[in-house]
Amino acid sequence: MKHSRILGMGSYLPEKVLTNADLEKIVETSDQWITERTGIKTRHIAADDQSASDLGVEAAKKAIEDAGIDAKDIDMIIVGTATPDKMFPSSACYIGDKLGIGGVPAFDITTACPGFVYGLSIADQFIKTGHRKNVLVVGTEVLSRLVNWEDRTTCVIFGDGAGAAVVTSSEEPGILSTHIHADGGYGDLLYCNNGLRGQLGDFPEPQIVMRGNEVFKVAVKTLSSIVDETLEANNMSKDDIDWLIPHQANIRIIQATAKKLGAGLDKVVVTVDKHGNTSSASIPLAMCEAIADGRIKRGDVCLLESFGGGFTWGSALIKY
Ligand code: ACO
Description:
Helices cover 32% and strands 25% of the residues. The protein is of the alpha/beta class. It has 2 domains: 3-172, Thiolase/Chalcone synthase (Peroxisomal Thiolase, Chain A, domain 1); 176-185 and 211-319, Thiolase/Chalcone synthase (Peroxisomal Thiolase, Chain A, domain 1). The strands form 4 sheets. It has a 5-stranded mixed beta sheet with strand order 1-7-6-4-5, sandwiched between helices. Strands 8-13-12-11 form a 4-stranded mixed beta sheet, with helices on both faces. Strand 12 and strand 13 (312-319) form a beta hairpin. The longest helix has 22 residues, at 212-233. The mean pLDDT is 95. Residues 29, 33-34, 37-38, 82, 112-113, 152-153, 156-157, 190, 212-213, 215-216, 219, 249-250, 253, 277, 279, 307-309 line the site of acetyl coenzyme *A. Acetyl coenzyme *A binds next to helix 2, helix 6, helix 7 and strand 12. The active site is at residues 113, 247, 277. It comes from Kangiella sediminilitoris.
């Protein structure tokens, strides 16, 4: 059987930066509260004319360049996003068009924050079975368009950005294993209506609704169990992991997962302070930063894990 590995990665952050001090002028909050409860200091905000596919295609171009291939070599596009350009066509279709590779199968996946991990998992299956050679996996979000800017419990948390990976077929294993899960029984704790007629709830306009404290507790428990599941599946111990690259939702959730791995934050890639929670973009954004500054090197074993609305959760163990 063939293996898959990450050949190249890229990311993109919009220019505009919103600080906690800026947010103090918008809602009843403080830099101290946001920093202590979430670890977030700044987040990037897309320009009015930037869609998820605009951000995603910038990250994709960098990933393709980093992979040293041509866009025409891509034979599948998978996009994780909770904030697609439209309900249809998918943002993946738009990204394919912007890359000039119409005809290549392209689809979005609606798995909230674990979108990138789910995307890696799907890419891995298509490549291992020999059906595809170079799959572009993108996580891209314009969550600033979805939050209610009068709701201090959510608007301080989220940010915009995109990250992408080219996953290719390989003789050597790169993606060692992926593990994906979902439980719709928790749907009421974190959701976003789509605004369709006849489906109106308390919040008919599309916006993120979150019972943060309850989400927090399940997230910590679930992420801890997926660390165990991943290590067991690979017959590995905590010491075999070089880097933990968690979804960047909240520094306290990240610290709890690091503790589970018996790791200090020096083995964990943290960008939540600068990016906020960028949902499906957060892991590739974090990974790109740690590759660029030389922390993550080729051959390092990286544990990617994420949790989000659904609930959905998942992990990918990769040898970069
Ligand atoms: N500024 C000041 N005070 C605030 C703010 C704010 N921005 N937001 C809430 N508060 C207040 C609340 O009103 C509450 O006040 P009260 O005690 O007078 O009622 C108090 O702060 C505590 O509120 P909690 O919700 O209990 O605060 P908590 O410590 O749980 O932190 C947070 C909230 C940051 C949202 C946290 O629960 C969290 O990170 N949850 C997990 C989020 C997550 O991981 N989501 C999944 C991924 S997202 C996705 O899938 C799209």
